[in-house]
Write a structure and sequence with these properties.
One of its GO terms (cellular component) is cytoplasmic vesicle. It holds the Pfam family VMA21. Keywords: Cytoplasmic vesicle, Endoplasmic reticulum, Membrane, Transmembrane, Transmembrane helix. The chain crosses the membrane at residues 29-52. InterPro entries: Vma21 (IPR019013). By secondary structure, the protein is mainly α. The chain has one domain (2-62). It is 89% helix and 0% strand. Helix 1 runs antiparallel to helix 2. The longest helix has 40 residues, at 25-64. It is rod-shaped. It starts with a helix and ends with a helix. The mean pLDDT is 90.
């Protein structure tokens, strides 16, 4: 939950934006931060989905008993 956004921030900054696309240091910080923020949102959405589906399943199982 923490390592994926941080890892993608540094790897996208170094390899994608500065390495492949040849952006300046300042621009690569900006775009790498966008990648990290989007990753945080995706990870949180997956976490909420899994928590919601487990809660719904437990609620249904408890309702049947």
């Amino acid at each position: 939950m923490i390592t994926l956004p941080v890892g993608l921030y540094f790897s996208s900054k170094a390899y994608i934006f500065e390495g492949t696309l040849g952006m300046s240091n300042r621009d690569s910080y900006f775009y790498a931060a966008i990648v990290a923020v989007v990753t945080v949102h995706v990870v949180l959405a997956m976490f909420v989905y899994v928590a919601w589906s487990e809660g719904t399943r437990q609620w249904r199982e408890g309702k049947q008993d």
